[in-house]
Amino acid sequence: MTERTLTIIKPDSTEKGNVGAIVAHLEREGFRIVAARMMRLTETQARAFYEVHRERPFYDDLVAYMTSGPVWPMALERENAVSYLREVMGATNPAEAAEGTIRKLYGESIERNAIHGSDSPENAAKEIAFFFPRTELV
Ligand code: ATP
Ligand code: MG
Prior knowledge:
Elements lengths: L1 E8 L1 H6 L2 H10 L3 E5 L6 H7 L9 H8 L5 E8 L1 H9 L12 H5 L8 E3 L3 H11 L7
Antiparallel strand pairs: 1-3, 1-4, 2-3
The structure holds adenosine-5'-triphosphate and magnesium ion.
The site of adenosine-5'-triphosphate has 10 residues, from strand 4.
């Protein structure tokens, strides 16, 4: 089934100049970009986006990292987009990610792990709406 998911190319990737390579990787894997923007998250936005993790010990560091530089949120479309993106991204910790995955190729630590991907279709819909009005999905 064709579905949509949300990715964010994270600040470590923009810092290292890996944006183009990651976009090319996603396109090669059959994702169609339906919306994209470059922005710097405010602290309020980063806290809200990762709200589910607010009780976790790494939450404040995660917010600091996600606001440390530009990010590229993108809505992506593909067959089974949510689960397939998780596969292409690799495990949260790049050291444990499978060979050839984006996090294995471009991530540097469990925190600075190159890219975000929605973890369920329900969250994908919420996360796409967080960044894009419906009229910007093309
Ligand atoms: P994302 O939600 O960004 O796609 P994920 O679903 O693989 O990543 P989550 O458990 O949702 O992993 O964690 C969200 C983000 O918080 C991670 O991508 C990473 O940047 C950071 N993070 C997760 N676990 C840790 C940890 N133990 N220490 C430091 N940062 C962490
Ligand atoms: Mg997650």
